[in-house]
Each structure stands twice: as C-alpha cells, then as structure tokens.
Amino acid sequence: MGEIEGTYRVLQTPGSRLGVQKNSGVSTLEPGQNLSTAMASSPARTHERDLQIKIKMLDNTVEVLDIETTMLRLAVKFFPPDPGQLQEEYTRYLFALQIKRDLAEERLTCSDNTAALLVSHLLQSEIGDFDESEDREHLKVNRYLPNQERIQGKILEFHRKHIQYIENIFSLCFHSIFWFSSPPGLPVDHSQLSSLVLKSPLGLNPAFPVNLNAAGQGSSPLLSPVLSDAGGARIEEEDEMKRKRYPTDKAYFIAKEILATERTYLKDLEVITVWFRSAVIKENAMPEGLMTLLFSNIDPIYEFHRGFLKEIEQRLSLWEGRTNAHVKGDYQRIGDVMLRNMRTLKEFTSYLQKHDEVLTELEKATKRLKKLEMVYKEFELQKVCYLPLNTFLLKPIQRLMHYKLILGRLCKHYTAEHRDFADCRNALKEVTEMTSQLQHSLIRLENFQKLTELQHDLIGIDNLTAPGREFIREGCLYKLTKKGLQQRMFFLFSDMLLYTSKGVTGTNQFKIHGHLPLHGMLVEESENEWAVPHCFTIYSAQKTIVVAASTRLEMGKWMEDLNMAIEMAKKSTEKSDIFLKPLPNSPPPGSSDEVSLEQESEDDIHSSRSSLDRQSHHRANTTMHVCWYRNTSVSMADHSVAVENQLSGYLLRKFKNSNGWQKLWVVFTNFCLFFYKTHQDDYPLASLPLLGYVVSSPVEADGIQKDYVFKLQFKSHVYFFRAESKYTFERWMEVIKRATSSPARSSLLLPKDEKDRHTD
C-alpha cells in the first residue's frame, strides 16, 4: 500500500495550546542502564523511593515534605472529540481558556461575527452585564483579538444582548472534582469541596440538541414532543446542594413563583412590543393609526413590568443572601415590593381598558388589508409566537388575576402579626379593585379572542365573530355517516352547532360540513337505539344527526352544554339573522324527521378547498388540534380556569433510558407545557399538550427514589418531573390537575344577572 502524498502538520497538544511548558522529567536511571535492566536488577525497595513534595506558600517561602511509601493512583480522563459534549464544568473551563488563547493568536478560523460573539461572552464573564463605558475601558486594557478595534462595535452590540448572566452564576452549584483515590465521576464531600471551588466557566457551552419525535412512537405530533436525553445529566448532586443553601420558608417559594411567572409574562409582552413590531415595521404593513393605538397602549405596560421584574430579582437576591448578607433579615419579604408596584399599576388601568378596542381594530384591519393579513399569518408561524398572536394581547389583564391569586396565597400563609402581612393584604386590596373593574372586559375579550382564533382555523365561515355570539365548547365526536362513524370536530356556540373535518393537505385547517341552529333543537341519549356506546341524537329544524363520544364523561359534557345552550336560546327575545343565515359549503338541510347520514364527497376526501389565500401551517398544540388527536373536548369554562392556572419555573425532567435528570425552564399555559433551556430563551424548544394526561405521584413500580416528583401519563406515554421544594411540587400538581379537569358547569351560559353574581 503506497503512501498518500500531501502536506502534513504536527498537531499541538492541548497543553501546548493552553501555554503549558513541554513535558519534561528527571531520569532515575544510573548511567548505562535502560528501563528493562534497571527493573530486573534493582531490589524491590528501589521502587519505594521517598516522594518529595514542594509547597510554595503565599509569602513565597517553600516547604519540602517527604512522604514515604506512597502509592499513587493514576486517573485517566477521556475527552469527547466534540466540545459540545463536555459535561464537567472544569473541562468546559479549560476549553474556554483554549478558545481565548486561540482567538488572541489567530489560530481559530472564524468569521468576524463569530469572533465578536465569543469575545462578548468573555466580556460578560469578566465584567458582567453590559455597560458601554466599562466595556470600552476594559477592551482598551485587554486585547482578545489582533483586530479588536475594527470589530469593537460588534462586540459591544453582542454584549448588550447578554442579560443577567452574572445572576445565573449565583444559581450555579459547586463544580464537582474527584480525588485520585475516588472513582471518576463521583463528587467529593461538600465539606471537602468548599475549599476547592473553581471559578465559574465562561458560559460558552453550546445548546443541547432537541428531539421532538421520540423513536418508536406514533405519528401523532402530540404524543412525543420531548427533549433529547443528551446534555444536562450531571445535575442531581448539584441540585441537592443548591437546595441546602437557599431558604426553605414557604413565603420564599411563593416569591420565587412571582419572579418566575413575571419573567414569562415579560417575554410574552416582548412578542408584541419587540418581535411583532419589528415584523410590521419591516414590511410597512400596519396603518399609522393602528400602530399608535396598539403600541401606545402596550409599551407603557411593558416598560413598567421591566422595572418591576428588576425589583423582584433584587429582592430575591437579598432574600437568598447572595448579596448584603448583613442586612438580609430585613429583606426576607415581598409584600412591600408588591404593594408599591400594585399602586403604580393602577395608573395603567386606562391602557388596559383599551385592549378591547385594540383587539377589535386589529382584527378588522387584518380582514381589510391583505398585506397586514399576510404579515400576521407569517408571524404566527415564527417560533417566538408560540401561542395565537392575539392571545398575547390578553396577558396584561390576565396577569392581574395572577397577582390577586398569589397575594391571596401569601395572606393565607402569614399570620396577622407577621411584618409582611399588612403590605400583602393592602396589595391584595389594590389589585382586587383593578380586577373588579376589568373582570367583565376580560370575559368579553377572551370570548372575542377565541372566536377570532377559530375564524382563522375554520374554512367555510366568514362571520364567526358576529356580535352576541359566544363560544361554549369545542371537541371531537364521531358522526354517523353512510360509511359508518367518522371523526368530526364540533364547535358549540350560543346560537349554533358547527361540525367540521380536518383537511389532509398542507393546511391544518378544518373544513365546515354543516351547521345546526340551536332554536328548536332537541338532544337525547340514543345508545339503545343505535347500539353505539356513548351515543346521542341531535334533532334540529334542518336535520337530525347521530354522534358518539369517546367516553361517557365526554358524552355527559356535550349533552349538558347543549341542553343549557338550547334553554338560553329559547329565552332569547331576539332572533338575529346570524342564527339562520346559511353558511358557505353547508350541506343542504334534510328532512327533520329522518336521520341524516352524511355522504363522503370527493371534496371532503381531498379537501380541495385548501384555500391558498388562507394557507397556514397551524401549530399542532392549539386546543382544536389537541382535541382532535386526543378525542376530547374543551369548554370556555375550561379556558377560563386554565388562565388562572399558569405557572413557570425550573423543573428536572427524568431521562427515559437512564437515572439522569435534565434541568429545563418550563412554562405551563393554554393546557400545554413549553420547554426552554433557560428562562432567557426567546422561544420554546418543545411542547407537550396535557389534555388527556393524568398527573399523579409516582408509585413504587416506577422506581423513582427522589422527593417532589410528579408523573404525567397519557396511555403508554409517561414523563417524570421533579420540583425543587414541597411547595413548588404541590403547585405544579395543583395547576395541572385544575387545568386538565373540566368544571361541573359553564358559567358563561348563566343568565346575565346570575353571571354577574358569579363573577363578583
């Protein structure tokens, strides 16, 4: 085999790239000896030479220690070829130092943008968050790149985007090292480690990969949106140590919940104030009047909450004793911060009252202006817009409800004598006054938002947001057709019942097959007549249809809501045209005394009305699509309960095939868990819709030997999540249980006077 021609170079060792001197040693062989002869001829005692250790003290004096008959243990450390797979913080630290040296010596081949980004991380590790004057002064003294002056502007621009990295360092646990006499991979005792804590790494660790479709599972996009098991496995011991360092008072964890949910809320506001603004400005798609109406109402709220979040972060830092430890006793409370900001927030009530107008005008403009409609739809496809866009416009009012609930929880926790009780009680009074003013507006806005969301997702109806119409329930039922039972999505409103099928083309929209007015409708159970489980018949003036639910519970929900809606329709004194106006593409009405067995047409099968002007790849985690895949339903009352049960925070997710746990930032909203690597990420890495899931504590057979773990299960799909405290564990169990179990009745169908009493 011949040699391969070419140019060869000697690769540098990691030590030489870090600036370490070349390896050298002192020979213990006598002149003329080699290693083999020395080993054969020397007595055994020769191998037990005394070991001499020199220790250089801080005053530069040197002490020599003689250690006799010492056995040295060799620890061999293997490094993966991909730096992104480095797990231990010390090896990441060495890798970061190597990057730093390679940048300075122009050994790292990369673009100017990449070099500037790397240097910005180095700046962040040296001086913390962005400060232009401090940055420029530091760059004058320290040279990270040969051409540093030329790209200094880019370096500063990148550093400006790194927010609160130093705050995160406080939450990092001690970095594990192992003794030569210990097996690699096991952390040393905490008391030993305290004197050996290494400086935090530079934070250059790459993002871990994400797997949204685990192998071996079904094709449904809802069944396997789980993060990869790669990365983040070695955190159990660190998490235990962190738990020991921080306060354990319940009030502290309630304050942490305020902080976590406030971070998520601010990110939600940025979807409108930063990302959507950028999209419409770039395309010049929004009229100036609408721009002013939208952003003049939400920008002041956003700026207020930015300052509010900083106050909460500072208070939690003091509470945890990370700074000013000598005065921390005066700061182990949150009521004064809440009271001060709730009083300030009252000044923004006028802005919140205009959100009704903002939503209405935005919807009108998107119908009227094709360019704005296109920008709107394209923006909803972006990762950062993880919910329907107009959902984010409801967040400011919904956030007030969260403040009310969490302040009520604090007041229940404190005794009347506690120094924080009075402030919490007064803050609760302030926010209760605001929510009372905005409660009816919120109900109206949530209904309008849901109608517009359905308007975008349904093909064959253009007047869904007609005045007076209220959404009641959506979900999957099986309709009896000439081909047997066929899956359909049903939508119940205060005046009519729609049924649709899901398109099989590129669009995930649902096409309307028919609509039934509620006036004159009758619903009765018909299991015996049709010999179909959970079956009931719907009689209307136009036609009669037979449907079946997936469970008896689902059948009960539909029949209860249908009967209540029918009763309310009977009491209605006005019969608006919207009740009887035919919808496009509706099948012709059949005889009222015979059951209509729907014929599957070619149009149904191929979904030819893909509607190119309305084509949109909608998310599979909207409630409409989740109900379709999970054979369930959701009412407007469920949506209202879900709004009250939103939660954010760090959780540990158990890997499927190992005992490791992965730390993730988790947001629970709209019946769905959204997973992020950190709270600073702009968009989720994956999501897990929870409709149909059951939350419980692990049983012995699950083999979970940790505290504060809850289990999520849907059929064969099982996930384990671990909280940091008893309070946090109970909160996650509570919000998931409440949001995924339906209320007994829908208050939206009560008469107006009863509804007023209910909401008050």
Compact summary:
This protein is an alpha+beta fold and 760 residues long. The protein is built from 26 helices and 18 strands.
Fill in the keyword field for this structure.
alpha+beta; Dbl Homology Domain, Chain A; disordered C terminus; PH-domain like; 760 residues; single chain; globular; 26 helices; Acyl-CoA Binding Protein; nine-stranded mixed β-sheet; disordered N terminus; 4 domains; seven-stranded antiparallel β-sheet
Any overview of this molecule?
- The chain has 760 residues and is of the alpha+beta class.
- It folds into four domains: 83-193, Acyl-CoA Binding Protein, CATH 1.20.80; 244-455, Dbl Homology Domain, Chain A (Up-down Bundle); 464-608, PH-domain like (Roll); 639-740, Pleckstrin-homology domain (PH domain)/Phosphotyrosine-binding domain (PTB) (PH-domain like, Roll).
- The chain contains 26 helices and 18 strands.
- The strands form three sheets. Strands 3, 4, 5, 6, 7, 8, 9, 10 and 11 form a nine-stranded mixed sheet that branches.
- The chain starts with 13 loop residues before the first helix and ends with a helix.
- Residues 1-11, 20-28, 44-48, 166-234, 575-618 and 744-760 have low confidence and may be disordered.
